[in-house]
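Case study B.
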Amino acid sequence: MSTGTTKLDVVVSDVVPVNDLVTRFHFRRRDGELLPTFSGGAHVVVEMRDSDRTRLNPYSLMGSPLDTREYTISVRRDDVGRGGSLFMHRQVKPGLEMVISYPVNLFSLDLRAKKHLMLAGGIGITPFMAQTSQLAAAGGNFELHYTCRTASLGTYADVLQQRYGSRVKLYHDDREERIDLDRLLSS
Ligand SMILES: Cc1cc2nc3c(=O)[nH]c(=O)nc-3n(C[C@H](O)[C@H](O)[C@H](O)COP(=O)(O)OP(=O)(O)OC[C@H]3O[C@@H](n4cnc5c(N)ncnc54)[C@H](O)[C@@H]3O)c2cc1C
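Model:
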C-alpha cells in the first residue's frame, strides 16, 4: 500500500463554523485508534459521496502534527466551484462516516532552515497552522505574514496572534495593507 492511495475510515466528530465563509471539520478514526502521523503542510483527499457521484477534494491538515487523535481541516465555501466545498458545508454533520486518504505532503518544511519566512493569503493559511505548531514545538524560528480581505474574514488570525504574538503580521485588503516583499526578502 502506498501513501496517498491508502484510505482511512473516519467519522466526523465535530463541525465548527469559523466565519461567514469557513467551517472547520474534525475527523476521528472509526476504530478509535490514533490517526497516522503527518508533518506540517500535509493534506488529505476527502471523499464525498454526493448522490450518485463521488467528489475528491484535497484539504490541508491544520491541527498540530503532535496530536493524532483527530485530524482537522477548514473548508472555505466556494459558491462557483464544482460543488465539493458546498457539499462539505451543507451535507457534512457530526456522526457522518467518511473516507479520507492517508496524509500526503507536497509542501513540507525544510528543517535545515535557520528561519522560516511564511507568506499566507486567505484560506491558504491552513497548512501554516500545522507548520507553525510543528515549528513552535521544536523551538523553530519563523515569521508568518498573513493577508486577509477583512479582519472578520481573517481565518484563525486571532488564534495565531494569541499563540505566536509578534511573530505573526497581519495585512488587511480593506485597509490597503500590503506585504512589503522587497523589504522582507532583502532582510
Ligand atoms: C493541496 C491542496 C490543499 C488544499 N487545502 C485547502 C484547505 O485547507 N481549505 C480549502 O478551503 N481549500 C483547500 N484546497 C482547495 C480545495 O481542494 C477545493 O478546490 C475547494 O474547496 C473548492 O472546491 P469545490 O469543489 O467547491 O470547487 P472546485 O471545483 O475545486 O473549484 C475551485 C475553483 O476553480 C474554478 N473552477 C472549477 N471548475 C472550473 C471549470 N470547469 N472551469 C473554470 N474554472 C473552474 C472556480 O473558479 C472555482 O472557484 C486545497 C487544494 C489543494 C490542491
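The chain is about 20% helix and 35% strand. The remaining cases will be described in the next quarterly update.
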